[in-house]
Amino acid sequence: MSIKNSILFLLILVGTGVFAADAIVYNPAYSSKTRSAIQSSNYKMKSFYLNNKYDDEMTEPAIKELQAKIYKEPDNYVLYALLSDLYIKLKQYEPALDNYVYLYNLQKNNKLSSETYSAIKKLFYSYKRILHKDGGLYLNMAVMALITGEDDAIDYAVAGADKSNNVLLTKKTIELIFDSNQDPVKAMNVCDKILAKNPYDVEVRKIKAIYHIMQNEPKEAIEQYTKVLEIDSDDDESRYGLYRLLASKKIDDKEMLKRLYGVKNSSELEDAYVSITELLLKNDDFADAKIYAAKLMKKYEQNPNGYIYMSELYKREGKIKEAYDTLSLARDKADDNSDAAKYNVMLAKLSDEPVKEANSLIASELYEQALEVLESANPESLYVILTQARTNYLMGNKQKTFDYLNKAMSLYKDNSDVYCAFGYIYLQEKDIETARRYANDSLKLDKNNKTAQDLMDLINKTEANQYTAQILDAIEAQNYDEALRLVNTAIETDKKSADLYYYKSLILIAQNNYAASTATLYRCLELNRNYKDAYFYLGAAFDNLGETQNALNNYKRYIEMTNGSEIGSTERIEYAKTRIDKLEN
Predict the structure, then answer these.
(1) pLDDT tier at 38 (50, 70, 90 boundaries)?
(2) What number of H helices and E strands is found in the chain?
(3) How much of the chain is in helix, strand and coil states, percent to nearest 5?
(4) Residue 505 host element (H or E)
(5) For residue 546, which of 574, 578, 518 has the smallest C-alpha distance?
(6) Segment among 170-179, 267-276, 352-361, 455-464 with least mean pLDDT
(7) Using a CB cutoff of 8 Å and minimum separation of 24, what contacts does 428-432 make?
(8) How far apart are the C-alpha atoms of 416 and 408, rounded to whole Å?
(9) d(Cα 213, Cα 175) in Å, to the nearest integer?
(10) Is 215 helix (H, G, I), strand (E, B) or coil?
């Protein structure tokens, strides 16, 4: 057993049976009753929540208690209904409706237990007795009526639409009414009422368009989509819906582009061809996108976009050579060096076969052969250059490594991957500050660069790991205040380390701060659900808090994960078994 575990294990043995009064969320007005209800059987818990009144001060912490239980028991669906009830008590109708929509989808797939069904039904009838003029409650009741099979779901939706100022809630409810096939005509009337109040509501118009399509009424659907585009010319969802309807009528290009983009004269056609091809690509409508890309290339030979789109389509078809050749034509038409550089980067990503082969050789530590393969590739390809840099670094040729990196920087100074490559090398050289600077520069150029994000995580982890030895030394010396300071500093650097939250929980347990340790252990498990020892110490913390069921659940989970015979964990396994036996008897 490691030093940190043996020290903390002994402390827990000594501390077990000392029950703390604190809790993760503590409100003296309600916490003992609420916690008891949450830990009890579902029947008792349901009864507790349905029969107790909460004021705002009590309801907020109760919501947190239920959310914590849902996290531990995500398949206990009755909890979602009870949580929605608490949201409604605070008039937080949106999260309540989200829960009920989730339960409705479960009910459609016959996954709702009779207990959950009964709880929703009881809540539904309790709301009927206290119904007031707040439309949010009516809309929630409409979804509850769908779940429980009541006949008046649409009536509640209509009433909610009349009374609610929350259009988002109304739309969600109306969409469910359509989905449930419960009187779509009435649902359309609700849409019309909303539009009577606000004729510029594009989302409601889109709902109407979809309804008309379902009813095989293309003319009416076209009318709705056209009105949406008159209100919001950037609504590409409606534009694509309109395109599909117009395409079925086989109208000519000029009329199509006029209807979609308001084209008035021939000078605007070129941009419209670019826009429609991009729209079709965005919606994965590859067959039609290819038709318009070809037209763009033929009609406007000097416009590089047609070649770029066609290259992308070839790439998606697996025709890499055709994609490369077509994109080369776009580069040849570039007006300036910056555009040419942009196309060079795109071409480099297409010509990655030598890089793939080299990486395969690098994985087998055949570095000389990898360099030979790369010598036959395009010497100005970005990823060829970066792979040459990496290979030389692995061979210990640091000067050549930086020669290649500097070459990449001179050719592709605005490329995120170049800065990322520098960052990885400096991290290997243990120059964390410089590595972080390059990683930040990489993310400034492309905030979505996954490689750069991973690099930043690795830098944070490396920096935080420098504290590990000091943290363990402080624990061994029982200097827990210093250990806690160090681990908090480390966590500020790396908030994604399950290990650091685990160490922090051990320190808190050693300080008899069991309530805080449970929150830290939950964070550890959020980051790594398979962190076995965290379940043991979570069991021990709840044991010390006198929360028997939670202690049992986590001790048992620990035993299950170790199969009762984890090497190096014999004492913890035996201890957990002993405590399970004592708590159950």
Answers:
(1) very low
(2) 34, 0
(3) 75, 0, 25
(4) helix 498-510
(5) 518
(6) 170-179
(7) 428/393, 432/459, 432/462, 432/463
(8) 11
(9) 14
(10) coil
Q: How far apart are CA 285 and CA 292, in angstroms?
A: 11
> In the predicted model, what is the mean pLDDT of residues 291-319?
89
- CA 129, 130, 131, 135 torsion: positive or negative? negative
Q: For residues 99 and 81, is the Cβ–Cβ distance under 8 A?
A: yes
Of 246, 225, 254, nearest to 237 by C-alpha is 225
DSSP 462-492: HHHHTTHHHHHHHHHTT-HHHHHHHHHHHHH
Mean pLDDT for the stretch of residues 434-458: 91
pLDDT at 19: 29
Of residues 547, 480, 555, 537, the one with CA closest to residue 21: 547
Q: Are 176 and 101 in contact (CB under 8 A)?
A: yes
Rg for the chain, CA atoms, rounded: 31
Sequence-ordered list of residues with C-beta below 8 angstroms from that of 222, at least 6 positions apart, any chain:
242, 245, 246
| 291: amino acid identity, one letter | I
Instruction: Please report which residue ranges of 149-268 form alpha helices under DSSP H.
Output: 153-163, 167-180, 184-197, 202-214, 218-231, 236-247, 253-261
**What are φ and ψ of residue 90, in 5° steps?**
-95, 5
| pLDDT at residue 567, rounded to an integer | 55
The type of residue at 566 is E
In single-letter form, the type of residue at position 218 comes to P
| Residue closest to 498 by CA, chosen among 525, 536, 475, 459 | 525
pTM of the model: 0.46
Among left, alpha and beta (phi > 0; psi -120 to 50; other), residue 263 is beta
